[in-house]
Amino acid sequence: MSHAVSRFAMNAVARLRDEREEESTKPFLARGSRAPRCHTCRVIESHCLCSWRPQVESRAGVCLIMTRKEVFKPSNTGWLIADVVRDNFAFIWSRTDVDPELIKLLSDPQWQPYLVFPGEYVAPERVTHTVEATGEKRPLFILLDATWTEARKIFRKSPYFDGFPILSLLPEKLSRYRLRRSTRSEHLCTAEVAALCLDLAGDVDAASALDAYFDVFSQHYLDAKHQLELNVSTPAHTELLPFVEHTAPVMP
Ligand SMILES: [Zn+2]
Fold first, then answer.
1. Centre of ligand 1 from the C-alpha of residue 21, in Å
2. What's the gap in Å between 47 CA and the centre of ligand 1?
3. Cβ < 5 A residues, ion ligand 1
4. pLDDT for 210-242, tens place per residue?
5. Following CA atoms 118, 77, 10, 200 in sequence, which dihedral angle do they give, to the nearest 10 degrees?
6. Whole-prediction pTM
7. How far apart are the C-alpha atoms of 111 and 114, rounded to whole Å?
8. Exposed/middle/buried for 9, CB within 10 Å: 0-12, 13-18, 19+?
9. Which residues form the DTW domain (predicted)?
10. Which of 36, 73, 121, 216 is least surrounded by CB atoms within 10 angstroms?
11. What does the pLDDT read at residue 173?
């Protein structure tokens, strides 16, 4: 690992990917990935995202519960959260094989875990819409990074989450977020949900950096997919720039 890389937090999703790649007997072939991808950021090499990784402090931590498939998806956005939030953790979910490290993390007294999930599926007394940002314990956001069907299954079949408050993002908060960011999709992706959680926890810089980083990632990812030239003069790049320490000139 080069010195330049070690200034960043370890990306727990990248670690999972590397471990699963080692375990696998046949090489994993990602869909539509004929062009070589950067091993560090997963984007096609000509549109590499690595020099745009933000450095920002946050008090909150994030714990991603993922499906095996999600770990390998080049479009997975949990990866971006792990790039931004220093205290990031990621586990592959299994109903029968619960990782003891996950149980250890959830019982670590420095953290107050919040399971992020829609409140309408949960007993109302467990639901909260706010985060205790200044308490002794730091917020740890548990995000189910999977399809909605899988997320519901994980939620139902993980009794070790039963004691934690459910952080449910309010519809008005969500629609304000969509307006502000002109997000067109009805469902927010995991990185957008994480940015909202960080904002609730008072980690506003980390929230802004993650939002901008997600936009920049989407641009690089889609431009590469459509074989368009990389454009680093977008509003998202400008927004992200203050959070990025550039060692080489990037802006033309
Ligand atoms: Zn890269």
1. 18
2. 8
3. 38, 40-41, 48, 50
4. 999 999 999 999 999 999 999 999 999 999 999
5. -40
6. 0.90
7. 9
8. middle
9. 34-226
10. 36
11. 80
